[in-house]
Amino acid sequence: VATVELISEPLDLEFAEPFRIARGVRTHGYNVLVHLRDGEHEGIGEAAPTVYYGESRATVLAALEVYREQLGDDPGAVRSISERLARTLRHNASARASLDMALWDLLGQRVGLPVHRLLGIDPTGAPTTSFTIGIDEPITMARNAAKAARQFKALKIKVGTEHDDEIIQAIRDVTDLPLYVDANTAWEPKEALRHIERLAQHNVTLIEQPVAAHDLAGLRFVRERSPLPVFADESCVGPHDVARLAGVVDGINIKLMKCGGITPALDMIATARAQGMRIMLGCMGAESSVAITAAAQISPLVDYADLDAALLLKADPFEGVTLTQGKLTLPDAPGLGVRRR
Ligand code: MG
Asked: Ligand 1 centroid to 69 CA: how many Å?
């Protein structure tokens, strides 16, 4: 007999500006909020489904009906529940992520501790987050970069266009902040090397997902010749991907919506560290402060954070993690520490 009640509701998010990457443009996120109630406390979670990873709001709602039957009668056994859900219905990671973060939120409230404290994580070690500059005309991207440079300590630059060189040059003309460049699978391996050689002359920190997600041989080819560290994002979905990427890339980008929540993300971090890999913690384009705050709870464990999605929204219905000159400040409140505005 389940002792927690699961309630879901749609969460429509709108971007302040259309957000373009190499694969396309988005204006809205059609997310799902979940609430887990034990009669005394209520945990909250968010699913941010993306078609690229095979999910939509409809698949999330359908998956939640399957997972509802698998929550069991001990909501504090988050690790067991996480594994059981993944075994019962694979993929559907954003649906599982919403439940995983709600379970951690609930557990934190029950014991009166922030999730990061439950996990033994030092909140003072939280990193700065980069701010993402979506694809646009080079002059517009430079203008957006100049504006972001007043508040952030690093920028993520989306490329994979006809004029990538002009983009980086235009941005370098307005800021000398560290740049994380993300090609979102846009290039062929040899083409990627030509781009990376030029990027390396512009003090770029790392190159993310230069080639197709399935092309691990291409990633390895690029990494062995690249003057810049190569990170995998689309090639690194869940825990099982981390070990096979060892020696193939220098680092990975972990996202709760790809892997299924905080619990599998912790496994990915441990595996990546054991393999000597660097770690970025990222997010999907459209996430409110519910999902962003959940990711921020484990951010002191990683090297780079790219947790800016809630800042790209026209309106964020929630508040949680805050920023001070680009540095993440974790809420000192039980559970996730997220509240409706
Ligand atoms: Mg990426």
From this structure: 33
- Ligand 1 centroid to 211 CA: how many Å? 11
CA 287 to centroid of ligand 1, rounded, Å: 15
Output the CA 38–ligand 1 centroid distance in Å: 36
How many Å lie between the centroid of ligand 1 and the Cα of residue 74?
36
Q: Distance from the CA of 234 to the center of ligand 1, in angstroms? A: 7
Q: Are 88 and 64 in contact (CB under 8 A)?
A: no
Distance 154 CA to ligand 1 centre (A): 15
H or E segment and range at residue 252: strand 251-254
Q: Let me know: does 183 contact 195? Beta carbons within 8 Å.
A: yes
Q: Looking at residues 158-179, what average pLDDT do you find?
A: 96
Q: Mean pLDDT across the stretch 225-241?
A: 98
pLDDT tens, 53-109? 999 999 999 999 999 999 999 999 999 999 999 999 999 999 999 999 999 999 999
Q: 0.85 exceeded by the pTM?
A: yes
- Residue with structure tokens 């399935």? 214
Helices (H), the chain: 57-68, 78-88, 93-111, 115-118, 138-148, 164-172, 189-199, 216-225, 239-245, 256-259, 262-274, 289-296
The answer to whether 236 and 214 have CB atoms below 8 angstroms apart is no
Query: For the residues of 70-124, what is the DSSP string, one character each?
Result: TS-S-TT-HHHHHHHHHHHS-S-HHHHHHHHHHHHHHHHHHHT-BHHHHTT--GG
